[in-house]
């Protein structure tokens, strides 16, 4: 209600001011750059792929070389069984094999696979795909430093499970481990953050959160403290209101709406 007097003052001013496109203004703080307006792919990743200290873009079949965005096609990406989508739902840059060149981790919905694309040394040459696993249909996945050791895991959202892929060895053979938690919280959407402020990153799912133990190989206790519905990827954890507790923000994955959960403590010291 306190906004009403302000709005009453603003409305006559707005009515008297001609509309102006921000995009056409020389003072606009942002400018849109189109590098491929025909790209059919769901995903993109940003990294320096050719070692010139400039950030390039990788998406689907190609990478785009900064600063002029020259297109380098380095692989073929098939259509899924739904012809509106290609089999490329993540393009996460990471030097998987430790050779100093930036590789890419990808996943797919229809073929249910997670794979990594090996940088060939000359990034304009074809990249080799290596299968990591086939956990299920995924709309995307992302890298997160889950254990705070500067070695990220690839966190995937498979509808019926909660888990990630962890790199165990970079050579002479690249080896991965698929870690699965209890499926109790599984659904559409996944995220991470230190929910209980113990210094360890927890996993957030649509139907609750998983507490990271002191020993990463031990059981992750599931807390069914909320239900978010068809949630976004990622679900975000942060102290949004500055009261010292970790709150949660999520969007609706297949609907409209952006929401947040405020974390509090009741009179008995229980998290609410």
Descriptive notes:
This protein has 272 residues and is mainly beta. 5% of the residues lie in helices and 33% in strands. 29% of the residues are buried. Strands 16-15-14-13-17-18-19 form a seven-stranded mixed beta sheet, with no helix packed on it. It has a four-stranded antiparallel beta sheet with strand order 1-2-3-4, with no helix packed on it. A four-stranded antiparallel beta sheet has the order 5-6-7-8, with no helix packed on it. The protein is globular.
Query: Helix segment count?
Result: 1
Low-confidence stretches: 1-22
Q: Describe the biggest sheet?
A: 7 strands, mixed
What is the average of the pLDDT values?
90
* Secondary-structure class: mainly beta
Q: What's the order of the H and E elements?
A: HEEEEEEEEEEEEEEEEEEE
Give the N-terminus to C-terminus distance in angstroms: 29 Å
Considering the chains and any ligands shown, give keywords for the structure.
272 residues, mainly beta, seven-stranded mixed β-sheet, four-stranded antiparallel β-sheet, 5% helix, globular
